[in-house]
Amino acid sequence: MIMMKNFNKTFLAIAVTLASSQAIAAGFQLNSQSATGIGRAFAGDAVIADNASVLSRNPAAMALFDKQQLSMGLTYADVQVQVNDVTHGSGANYGSVDDAAEAKVIPNFYYVNPVNDKFAYGVAMFSNFGTGTDTTELSNNIIGGRLPAPIDLLGKTEVTTINFNLSASYRFNEHFSVGAGVDMIYGQGTLTRGGAVPSPITGAPIDVDLVDVDADGIAFGGIVGAVYEINADNRFGISYRLSPEFKASGDVTMAGVDFDEIIIPLPDIFQVAGFHQLTDKFAIHYTAQLTTWADFDEITVSDPVDAQLKHYAWDDSWLFSIGGTYTLNNSWTLRAGYMHDQGVVGEISSISIPDSDRNWYTAGVTYNLSQNTSLDFGLGFVRGEDVSLIESSGLVGDIHATTRSDATYYSMQYNYQF
């Protein structure tokens, strides 16, 4: 019975961490698609179209280009996750992990080609998810020689996903444009759960491996969007990303049973954005985005049998951001932004997936090297909240902990206009 409980809990953790587009990694949705976006907290990114990275948000905005555009860059995501005072219900303290997350370098690439004044196409590569947590250092703590750590809740989780996108746009008239695209999403993840438990005979520590996972998969989704231009200085954008049912397969060994495939329903993403050039030098922009995490209703497994693993619903999550852009001179453009990003975890919290509402404070610059070439730099500070949680371990019962998730984003991007 204990092993079956371990099986359910650890497999649920695998399934959650392998979720790709707009998923949560250690409490973070990796908004990292461009340096310009980070610099303005992604406010208005579905409609500004100041470089080709708009492909990650709204394919219809390609209609705003009259020349070929290339953008490519790197984002360094320094994610800081603290797991403090992991405590048994009896009061026994297993300790804390001050730095449970791993930093990631996230590349991106975008190319937009306006074929004529009506039609444009583009290709893109970017990541919506890529981070990890590691609480392995607590897994071997045995209290009083008899009470093992909750090794079914502790361990290493690491995930990487990449989106490959092909999109097209069509301009109906000077005011209205539409676009659509196809996403191919590759996801790869590893997860371990295990540690030391006392021998029931001698009491000596015994190493136990509960789970050892290396799984990957490919899924297909899509995005549609529209842009409405009131005039050259005021426009609105809207997009809807249809997320796939993601399937991951590979080596999954747990409790002596091998399974091959996990099936995870992913949420859709809807966003609206606006851009207003108020003066020759200053513009404001904003975004509201809904991610339908309530669609995350159940996780199933297959091979050797098909079964519901867990009924598990998160909350829908809203994101709101506002930003400003100031053109200092012909060489320099300045930007800043603020974002409030709601957490998705509802009544069920997790030590391995800390989550809370987050506030983003960002700034960025563009430096024009020439008429056709520019460099973008973005800096973002993401601050979460302290969350007190209780998670049930199949080995030792209820576990209490306090978690916090923060991050700092450093991003650089090269843009070229042909």
From TrEMBL:
Compartments reported by the entry: Cell outer membrane
Record keyword Cell membrane present: no
Gene3D superfamilies assigned to the protein according to its UniProt record, in alphabetical order: Outer membrane protein transport protein (OMPP1/FadL/TodX)
UniProt keyword annotations, A-Z: Cell outer membrane, Membrane, Signal, Transmembrane, Transmembrane beta strand
GO molecular function: long-chain fatty acid transporting porin activity
Keyword Membrane: yes
Coiled-coil positions: none
Signal sequence, start to end: 1-25
Database matches in InterPro entries: OMPP1/FadL/TodX
One GO cellular component term noted in the UniProt record for this chain: cell outer membrane
Domain of life per record: Bacteria
Topology with respect to the bilayer: Multi-pass membrane protein
Classification via PANTHER family: OUTER MEMBRANE LONG-CHAIN FATTY ACID RECEPTOR FADL FAMILY, OUTER MEMBRANE PROTEIN NMB0088-RELATED
Annotated family: Belongs to the OmpP1/FadL family.
Name listed for the protein in its UniProt record: Long-chain fatty acid transport protein, putative
